[in-house]
Amino acid sequence: MPAPPSPASSTVNAPSPPPNRKHPVSADTALFPAATLYAIVAIPLWLYAQTSPARSAWPIATAFVHAHEMLFGYALAVVAGFLISKASPSWLAALFLCWIAARGAPFFFAETSPVVGIPNLLFAGLVAYGAAPMFMRAAKKAQNRVIGPLLIAICACPFLYRAGVAGLLPGGQRQALLLAVDLLALLMLLMGGRAISPAVAGHHYRRGEVLQARVQPRLERLMILFMLAGAACDLIPGAAVASGAFAIAAAATTAVRAWRWRLWTVLDRPELWSLGLGYLWLIIGLVLKGLAQTAGALSLTHALHGLTVGALGTLTLTMMARTHTMRQRRPLERFGDIGAGAALVSLSALLRLGAPYSASPEYTVVLLWGAGLAWTVAMALLLRRLMGFAARPP
Fold first, then answer.
1. What is the CATH number of the domain that holds 200?
2. Helix %, strand %, coil % for the chain, to 5?
3. Which residues contact 61 (CB under 8 A, 6 or more apart)?
4. For residue 335, which of 9, 61, 242, 270 is within the disulfide window of CB 3.0 to 4.6 Å?
5. Cβ atoms within 10 A of the Cβ of 40, count?
6. 386 closest CA partner among 23, 2, 34, 91
7. What is the dihedral of CA 98, 345, 280, 63, to 10 degrees?
8. Contact between 246 and 229 (Cβ < 8 Å)
9. Is residue 94 part of a domain?
10. What confidence tens digit (pLDDT) does each residue in 236-295 have?
11. Using CA atoms, how far apart are residues 278 and 318, in angstroms rounded to an integer?
């Protein structure tokens, strides 16, 4: 997930929505618990819909709807909660109500109905309007200036998806989902790096050591170029091999960057190694995507779960916990529950990646349900922490 830069840990400050607001509040207060609760409910519900004898009657049973909800429902809500740090209560209420309506609409209307798409398109538009402008105005460095347009592009993906559903753009659904994975992966690479490098450097400093390699802007710029090139190729018919090659190149660049952070030295700090684990999943996920597109070694649909379940799940879980803790002005200690949650999300990713290659359909179902259970328990641990902090005075 995308992960918020804290004032003390990044040169990029989270943007604020429109002016003239009274008593501003952070969007994470509503969206983090809501997204987490939705993640707890949605995966078992989708698995039940997939394995139910009457699954054709379930509007959420298709793979497209599942991917749409996890990317444009869960992930986009986390992005909004992370980046919109100040909003008026009325503006936040409109944002939240659009999100709620978007999540409920598929249960009452067919996917082809315009009613299903309108709330989510409004939500995506509000997120882009609230988060992107400040990044575009305030960023001074080249690698920071990409964040605003990147957020707008992510929020444009639901529009591309609806164009595909409406038949205006053949293949638009698949293109929108694949592009969203590419762009969210780039956002995680950028924001995750901005969170990890100062945190690990601070850990070394407290031990009387110096970490020379931090953001590493040259590697970061190269990584951005590889990821943008791969995303562009994913929109071009017949360019899958080139996209896969760029994904592998981005993975190699990211691996060098992460190696120089010496993440193996923070294994005693769950709030740090859980971030590192999410970043490792970005490397693994990009390699799997690259192998699927260049060599056809595995299905692209299955390979993308390395980026979605592994990287997105681990980083969103960890960063929601970190962000909420820091905004509550509490120390990042006793993160054992979140460390356990990160490990469970990784287990979920491994089971999900292995499920299609099991010995029989029965084992596939068992592995899928095992992945869903691990994911659900991990998110329940996060929700417990979020609600526990919310009940305490600041």
1. 1.20.210.10
2. 75, 0, 25
3. 46, 49, 50, 52, 55
4. 270
5. 18
6. 34
7. -60
8. yes
9. yes
10. 999 999 999 999 999 999 999 999 999 998 898 999 999 999 999 999 999 999 999 999
11. 8
Does 274 map to a domain? yes
pTM of the model: 0.89
How many CA atoms does the CB half-sphere of 352 hold within 13 Å? 25
pLDDT tens for 300-313 read 999 999 999 999 99
| Per-residue pLDDT at 362 exceeds 80 | yes
Please, is 54 exposed, middle or buried when counting C-beta atoms within 10 Å of its C-beta (0-12, 13-18, 19+)? exposed
Residues 6+ apart with CB under 8 A from 305: 349, 352, 353
Radius of gyration of the chain measured on its C-alpha atoms:
20
Backbone angles phi, psi at 25, to 5 degrees: -130, 160
Which span out of 13-27, 201-215, 352-366 was modeled with the highest average pLDDT? 352-366
4, part of any domain: no
* Cβ-contact 62, 127 below 8 angstroms: no
Burial of 90 (0-12, 13-18, 19+ CB in 10 A): exposed
Residues in the chain: 394
The closest alpha carbon to 25, from 383, 388, 327, belongs to 327
Instruction: Work out the number of other CB atoms within 10 angstroms of the CB of residue 316.
Output: 30
d(CA 204, CA 197) in angstroms, rounded, equals 11
Number of domains into which the chain is organized? 1
Under 8 Å between Cβ of 349 and 43: no
Residue 15 in any domain: the answer is no
Predicted pLDDT at 284 = 97
Judge contact between 110 and 59, C-beta under 8 A. Answer: yes
Could you tell me the residue range of the domain that residue 269 belongs to?
28-390
pLDDT confidence of residue 142: 63
